Structure formats: structure tokens, C-alpha cells
Amino acid sequence: MEQLINMNDLKTAQPAITVYSQQSVESQASTPVASPVPSPVASPTAHNYEPLPPNIPQPQISLKQDHFKHLEHVAQPEVVRKFANPAPLGLCAFALTSFVSNAMNLYMANGTVTGINIGLALIYGGISQFLAGMWEMALGNTFGATTFCSFGAYWITFATLSEIDTTNPVVEKAIESCQAEVLMGIFMMAWFIFTTLMLLCTLKSSIAMFLIFFFLDLNYLLLAITHFHCGSSSGMVAALQKAGGVCGILAAITAWYNAFAGVFDQSNGFFTVPLGHFPWSPVHHVHQANKYKEV
Fold it and tell me: Which CATH architecture has domain 87-294?
């Protein structure tokens, strides 16, 4: 072989091992070591808030709508507001005022009872029933809000008209008696039309609720006819007025019955008050389906 490996050369190629004494180690430990130069890039754990150099791109955070989709399924705390049922209050206010007012039509009461009827129509039949309609509106019941507010306003208007007719003699002199009766007949006929519309809305409700508007509708119709026949014989007018009073009292009784059914519920009564339902009513179909399941 042209090249020969000398064993001495291999020995000299091995790294030299330096042996330090304890004194030299202590001298090196006492020598201050220069702190390393900080990196221009801040560490995630370091509290360095200096801006990054221009040659390093700034981190960009993009918030898209997809990042918040999971928040839609997070259960949010629900605010529970428990309202009492305002329907019995409105029905009782309507029933009591209608009973007293139609008892006057039935028995031809005197002026003293008329004054009592005005106060009752203004406070209980008017304001209380109107407030019940406002609470029905807060509960989302459009039918209850419309009927209670409307009939509450009717009793307030009725009390106002009765007060004007009894306390202002100038009006009585300016308008003849028959003309005033005709105007009152138009007023009653307008409420007959409104009550007929509300009657149609009760066809899917209970029979007891339907009977309220049925008797009330007849009451407005008969009283309107009574006021229109101001020039007819007194016997016919009295008969129509009494017939209207009977229908009004029946409407008041059925309203009290519906109010009792609303108050005499599971928390106050021992049984459910039957209201009756039409064969085409959705509630009737539910009852029939439950009977079939029990069988």
C-alpha cells in the first residue's frame, strides 16, 4: 500500500481532555457572565409589549361568523314571568254591570238606580274590564284584549252619555226626545255589529263562551229596535225592552259561569267546570282522541 497509517498519528488525533481543579472552577464561577442579547421577537410567555420589527409580519386575527355558531346552542337563562289569568276579572266586571243595567231595562227602574248604574258602569264595568283587556294583550291573547278593552270602553261611554243626559238640560231642549232615541238606537246597532263579529270568533271556542256573545248580541239588537221605535205604542216598546233585558241577564249569567270556570281551576277547585265544545272544535277532537287511547 502506498500510504501507511502510523499508530502514533491516531493517538495524536484523539481529543485532549482538560482536567480542571476546584480552584479554577471557583474562579470561573466568580467571573460575571455576559447576559445574552435578547431576541427581537417577543416570546409568548414574556411580558414584552414592544412593537415587532417591520421585517416580521404582524399576526392577524379574523373573526368570522362561523366562530360564533356554537354560541347559538348554548342554553341561555330564561326569565320566567308568571301572570294571573285576567279573563275572570273581565268577565265578572262585564257580568255584574250587565246584570244591573239590564235589570233596569226589565223592571223600569227609577233615577236613583240609574245613578248607581252610572258609577258601576264607569268603575267596575269600564275601567276594570279595560285593564283586564290590557293584561290579555300582555299575555298575547288578541281576542281577549279586543273584547275586554272594547266592552270596557263601551261601559265608560255609556256612563258618560247617561251622565250628560241626566245633568245637562240644555241638551234635552236642543234635541227632541225621539231624535235622541234614534241616536241611541244607532249606538246600540253599532255594538250589535261588533258583537256579531266577535260571536263568529267564538265558534272554535267553548259553547259557554259562545252563549255569552249570543245573548249579548240579541240584547243589543232588541235594545236598538226599542230605541228606533220611539214613536210606536208604549206596549210594544216595553215588550222589546224587557226582552232585551232578559237576554242581557242571560249574557251576564253565562259570563259569571265562564268566570267561575276560570277561577275554579286545579288550584282552587276539586273538579273541572264543564264548558262544552262544538263537534268541530279542536278541543273536542283532542278529547275524542284521548278517549280512544284510554280504550
Answer: Alpha Horseshoe (1.25)
